[in-house]
Design brief:
Helices cover 35% and strands 20% of the residues. The protein is an alpha/beta fold. It has two domains: 3-61, DNA polymerase, domain 1 (Orthogonal Bundle); 66-337, Aldolase class I (TIM Barrel). It has a ten-stranded mixed β-sheet with strand order 3-4-5-6-9-10-11-12-13-14, covered by helices on one side. Helix 5 (134-152) crosses helix 6 and helix 11 (274-284) runs parallel beside helix 12. The longest helix has 19 residues, at 134-152. The two termini are 36 Å apart. The model has no long low-confidence stretch (mean pLDDT 94). The structure holds S-adenosyl-L-homocysteine and iron/sulfur cluster (SF4). The site of iron/sulfur cluster has 11 residues, from helix 4.
């Protein structure tokens, strides 16, 4: 089996090259090719000796995703459908910032499918196909960077934020996600402050992230304010109930000026009452937080949730704001191409 170089940390890559008889500083050159120049083959690495390139070709691989399809939304959002080496498919979503400008947020996947089974989420309906390897997570960023650089936009555009809010539950694939995070920050040079990992509330993952770092931003998909409601829409709550989840959030060591984001998908008559809003205020008391209210995006004709009526969401927001919380209503982008939150299923066609 050849070694995927983007799977390796810098220390591991250095060791790998030493095995091939190379001096350690070669690692910097290879890292530059992989993460800055976005090389897809050893042939491109022209400042490495022929002998080294041959040695690498024999023992190592430069992983790469196969871009099957790109869809563009009328709001400028682009959805990428990628095939993995074994034929599984995943999606990533590139969103222009609402304020305009040249920055993009890239939403990436951590698993093909998801085992967590949230009732309102299309990815959850698929079930889990498999975990992604770290290099397959990193490669989503690299493939989209290449796409941007090869002229899809005017120059100057770049990815400024990365969110793990695509397919999958990042903390059900903890080790590979952390490995990918280390390479995206340490080797690609992406700012930790501009990366957010979103979890459905896998408490051991929150604890491990606190212990092991890296110091990226944490988002928690809360979506309900009582165990009864949350059990009904997020089966994961039976294992990791609200009081324990909130306790883990309270104990999470936040760096200065950081907050935990709480996502709250607004579902008509399920979690959108004034009572819910007041309970949410209580739950978040004492946590440096911001709240993202996400109006439900329809995902499937058999899934019978609805968006709350017109005024409900601003009213809900008002109660939270009155209590001093920072709250935004996150209008999901790309719903016309099924690229919005909860709509990813990575199949051709619709
Ligand atoms: N598995 C992780 C990250 C991916 S889901 C998590 O659940 O946090 C990203 C966000 O989309 C989550 O906050 C989730 O609650 C939300 N979401 C899922 N389905 C949705 C839908 N149909 N409409 C709106 N948001 C949805
Ligand atoms: Fe998985 Fe997140 Fe969808 Fe829940 S909302 S099924 S955790 S991807």
């Amino acid at each position: 089996m050849k070694t995927d170089l983007k799977q390796l940390s810098k220390a591991e890559l250095t060791g790998f090259l030493e095995h091939l008889g190379q001096s350690p500083y070669r690692a910097n050159q290879v890292i530059n090719w992989l993460y800055k120049k976005l090389a897809v083959s050893f042939d491109e690495m022209t400042d490495l000796s022929k002998g080294l390139r041959e040695g690498l070709r024999a023992t190592a691989a430069v992983s790469n995703l196969d871009l099957l399809q790109t869809q563009v939304s009328k709001d400028g959002t682009r959805k990428f459908l990628f095939a993995l080496k074994d034929g599984e498919t995943i999606e990533s979503v590139l969103m222009p910032h609402s304020k305009g400008g040249e920055g993009f947020t890239l939403c990436i996947s951590s698993q093909a499918g998801c085992a967590t089974g949230c009732m309102f989420c299309m990815t959850g309906r698929l079930g889990l196909k498999r975990n992604l390897k770290a290099c397959e997570i990193v490669d989503q960023v690299i493939a989209v960077k290449r796409y941007i650089e090869t002229g899809a936009y005017e120059t100057g555009h770049s990815i400024t934020n990365i969110v793990f809010m695509g397919m999958g539950e990042p903390f059900n694939n903890f080790n590979e996600v952390v490995r990918a995070l280390r390479n995206i920050t340490g080797l690609m040079g992406f700012s930790k402050r501009r990366i957010t990992v979103s979890t459905a509330g896998i408490i051991p993952g929150i604890r491990k992230l606190a212990d092991a770092g890296p110091d990226i931003n944490l988002a928690v998909s809360l979506n309900a304010t009582t165990d009864r409601i949350r059990n009904g829409i997020m089966p994961v709550n039976k294992k990791y109930p609200l009081n324990k989840l909130i306790k883990a959030c309270k104990e999470f060591p936040l760096s200065p000026n950081r907050r935990i984001t709480f996502e709250y998908v607004m579902l008509d008559k399920i979690n959108d009452s004034a009572q819910d809003a007041h309970r949410l205020v209580k739950l978040l008391k004492g946590i440096r937080s911001k709240v993202n209210l996400i109006p439900y995006n329809p995902v499937h004709k058999l899934i019978t949730f609805n968006r709350p009526s017109e005024n409900k969401i601003p009213e809900f927001q008002k109660i939270l704001r009155k209590a001093g919380l920072t709250v935004i209503i996150r209008q999901s982008k790309g719903s016309d191409i099924s690229a919005a939150c909860g709509q990813l299923k990575a199949s051709y066609g619709h």
